Amino acid sequence: MSFWTPSRQGIVFTTIVVVGTTAGFVLGVREAFVDPVLAVGEPRVRVEGSVATVQVTVRNASDGRAYCPDVGIAAIDRDGRDLASGVAVPDLGDGRLGPGQSANYIGTLTGIAQEEFDEELDEYVGFVEEENPCP
Amino acid sequence: MATEPAERFILAPTLTQRPDFHITRKLVGVPKWPLALLTLIYMINVSDQFLLPSMFPLLKREFGLSDTGLGLLSGSYLVSVTLFTVPFGVLADRYNRTRIISWGTLAWGLTMIFTGLSTGFAMLLIGRIVLGMWDPCDNPTSQSLLADYYPVNQRSKVMGVYQVGQLAGFILLPIAGIMSAAWGWRSTFYFFSLPAFVVAVLAWRLHEPRRGVQDRKHQRLEHDETRVVASEYDEARGFSAYKDLFACRSYMAMLVSATVGSLFFGGLGVWAPTFLIRYHDLSIAAATSSIAVVAIGGLIGAIASGHLADYLIHAKHPSARIAVAGMARVLSVPFFLFAFAINYTALALLSLAVGAMFLVAGIPPTNAARSDVLHPNLRGRGTSLDAVSQSMASAASPIIFGILSDVADLRTAFLILSPLAAVAGLVLLTLGFATYGRDARAVRHQVRREHFASLGSGESPDADVLFVEPEEELSLSEAVRVWRPDEGPMLEVQGLDFSYGPIQVLFGVQMAIPQGGCHALLGRNGVGKTTLLSNIAGLLDGQAGEIFYRGQDLSGIPPDQRTKLGITLVATGRSTFPSLSVWDNLWFGSYPFTGSEELSQQRAEAILEIFPLLADRLDQRAGTLSGGEQQMVALGRALMAGPDLLLIDELSLGLAPTVTGQLLDVVDQVLELGTTILLVEQSIGVALAVADTVFFMDRGIVEPLGKAAGLDADELIRRLLEGHK
């Protein structure tokens, strides 16, 4: 117990604060400046009845690698849960994205009840499920 | 120069009407920094708590989580919080509270970084559980600390400010949303860890107040904040402390009331947006942002109810905290019923906001009342039990709403559950109201008993030697009025510290002035004489210490109300309203404080008899008068209020000796009226000419030198030059 003197407590506390603050700041800045290799644009949505067609643009921001990504789409409720989700496929070509290239991916979401459209639906999202570097 | 006594005596303090009036106290004379910091910590706690749920969509994409997984993350956090709240309550009652908060917030910060580093569900889950472990480190601890940092008579107000932290915590969440959209969810966690480290360091620097120090100060038992007072709860183990908690009827009433209220309140935030979408055709975004109106109502309610409850206590309603809390909850119900019954959206939102205002208004007075009825060493445990029961009720509430909505409809669910707030209020207004006074008194007696036991002086713990429950028997203004000179000094300054920013001017000033006579305060320029007078007059508020006037604590009472109580200041340096006429200057010295036009008129005439020079200049602007004439106006204006205690700062400063002589004649006449004068002077000749006793001030410390008649002027001059020996 005598080891845990107030001065030692202060030293341990200060050390953890310094380490934590430095780590939080460095990690935060690093993360903020790391752009994803595959950038997904804002989804464009067309709703007909209970079917929503969602289109997103995916861009390969890497310098030298081609990707063949798996792209997903989803309709999300206010609590962040999926009302519906699905897969989006490239509207043209085989889905191979060379460095600096973009492609549109389209998918449909079904099974959303009218009440969910009215009361629960918060937003549509597109996302990269797997980056899949092309062979 | 001398006037006829019959005219002059219209200025006598005894002729001044000092009706009973409601004193309002500002939160001054106490450091506000701990309250600001603890409120900030509460805010950060709330935002950290809800940060992960706001990131669910992003986490779901990145880790491929199912909804069950997300639910598990939320649920594990709640379970963890519930399990650790009670132990933290025990810790808060037994150990150094500022250290508990420091280490706890430090652990939050680290947990936020850990969560940001997550590579999968398992790490996220561990992060949530660990965050839940540390989450309760602040609320029970902070409330216990606040009760010991701030005066008993300002508790509701303090709790109102603290409550703002919870509501403001939600404001940070949209910021987190913007950050995560721009920089990703991980960086949001990393950056949100930084405020936790900052507040951890600041909390480390907070001083740990002695438990119950404010309760002892309230009873005027002591002013030594460092002395340890042993309590029977210091070594209380197991359930004995909880047995006492459960035996406290008013505490149990508050616990039941808060729990019943949470059965409604917990579901309100979850289901109100759905209600607005379903019954008012609002979009989801509009419904969600409309809830901000409810939060604003809550903010207003939290601040207003704290002030109202404290104000009513000063106005001789000792159970006002319970009454305000209970009434607020009952009053919220009609507004909620109206909001959920009508179809007109604007009115529904307005009514919802007012309902929320009343509902939240019940929280700060309840928190303050809980501190009143719990022994200082039980407050952590009491608050933690309350938090657990509330969070369990809040968790059950949305489910009850959902069931009722499925069975009938959502509107019916709201209409059925809204009256629970009234039930909560009625519990307070019946059981709580009936037992609060008794329980609060029992705590005061126990605090007093422990105080005397720790002194070991053999004084009877039951002897009501110092404390007469002032709030319960007399209002403060009444108590000042009926005070008698044999009850102690008229003015008593105890341990007064004052700083202008980082520069400390007053160092624990001790000073006692009896009623009657002129008392001079001598000292060199810049030693703190004017600062001391300004503190007495209420123009400045010291960081520590108290000032008692006629036995009553003046802390937080604004200057105009001190003038109504009988304290008037003639400030240094021609303190007139320069753009107003002489007549208006005089009138402003009386009418606002006496409220009597006739008395003001008679007094103005008496002043003009004393200062005939002013009679020819009544319409002249005071700023255009000579220095001596302006000093006459300033003194005249002060006398118009009929002061019991007249504070004069540098009467002779910059005046010709003949003018000073005239003013000293006036001072003699004022003394004959029965007014007590505290005169600050640099001129020893002037001071010794009129003073009965002399105080010497140097470097922020006051030393009584005794009767003026026995003092050697040359010796005084030497001391002025040398300062304290």
Describe the structure.
The complex is a heterodimer of chains A (135) and B (725). Chain A has 135 residues and is α+β, with helices and mostly antiparallel strands. Chain A is 26% helix and 39% strand. Chain A is built from two helices and seven strands, in the order αββββββαβ. Chain B is an alpha/beta fold and 725 residues long. In chain B, strands 6-7-8-3-9-10 form a six-stranded mixed beta sheet, sandwiched between helices. In chain B, helix 8 (155-169) packs across helix 17. The longest helix of chain B has 37 residues, at 419-455. Chain B is elongated, with a radius of gyration of 30 Å. The two termini of chain B are 42 Å apart. Classes of the chains: A alpha+beta (135), B alpha/beta (725).
Number of helices of chain A: 2
Helix content of chain A: 25-40%
Strand order of the largest sheet of chain B: 6-7-8-3-9-10
**Number of E-type strands of chain A:** 7
Assembly type of the chains comes to heterodimer
Provide tags for this entry.
heterodimer, A: 135 residues, seven-stranded antiparallel sheet, 2 helices, flat, B: 725 residues, alpha/beta, six-stranded mixed sheet, 64% helix, elongated
Task: Break the fold down into its secondary structure elements and pairings.
The complex is a heterodimer of chains A (about 140) and B (about 725).
Chain A: H1 6-33, E1 38-40, E2 44-48, E3 51-60, E4 70-77, E5 82-90, E6 102-109, H2 114-120, E7 121-130
Antiparallel strand pairs in A: 1-3, 2-3, 3-6, 4-5, 4-7, 5-6
Chain B: H1 5-8, H2 33-54, H3 56-63, H4 67-94, H5 97-116, H6 121-134, H7 139-149, H8 155-169, H9 172-183, H10 185-205, H11 213-218, H12 240-247, H13 249-280, H14 284-314, H15 320-341, H16 345-361, H17 363-373, H18 379-407, H19 410-417, H20 419-455, H21 470-473, H22 476-482, E1 491-500, E2 503-513, E3 518-523, H23 529-537, E4 544-549, E5 552-553, H24 559-565, E6 567-570, H25 582-594, H26 597-610, H27 612-615, H28 627-640, E7 645-649, H29 657-672, E8 676-681, H30 684-690, E9 693-698, E10 701-707, H31 713-722
Helix pairs in contact in B: 2-7, 2-8, 2-9, 2-10, 4-6, 4-18, 5-6, 5-7, 5-10, 7-18, 8-14, 8-17, 9-10, 13-14, 13-17, 13-18, 13-19, 13-20, 14-15, 14-16, 15-16, 15-17, 15-20, 18-19, 25-26, 25-28
